[in-house]
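Pasting as-is:
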Amino acid sequence: QGHLTESGGGLVQAGGSLRLSCAASARTFSSSTMGWFRQAPGKEREFVAVITWSGLTTYYADSVKGRFTVSRDNAKNTVYLQMNSLKPDDTAVYYCAADVYVGLRSRFYYTMPQTYGDWGQGAQVTVSS
């Protein structure tokens, strides 16, 4: 299993932007589908975005579509989450996760935390109103 480390979280005003990074140490990163999830206090962990190993396929939660962009740089073993037009409801701990299954799954499976075997420690994002 690989080690995932998120960075780039912080405090931002509503309407602002942040970019999260997730660095992976595993040599399997370039063949792993990478997902982003978030968890707000008192709420369940929820799907945010996912990008397949090739970068050709991405899916987003409806709540972030058009505002967030997921991307990856396999040469740097890093996946990114660019977050624009942030809202107070986006406040949460954000986690990156890796799915080492090489084949493609349907969007449904990518939205489920159980699909992913490796998780980072999380990065706090706080959006003030």
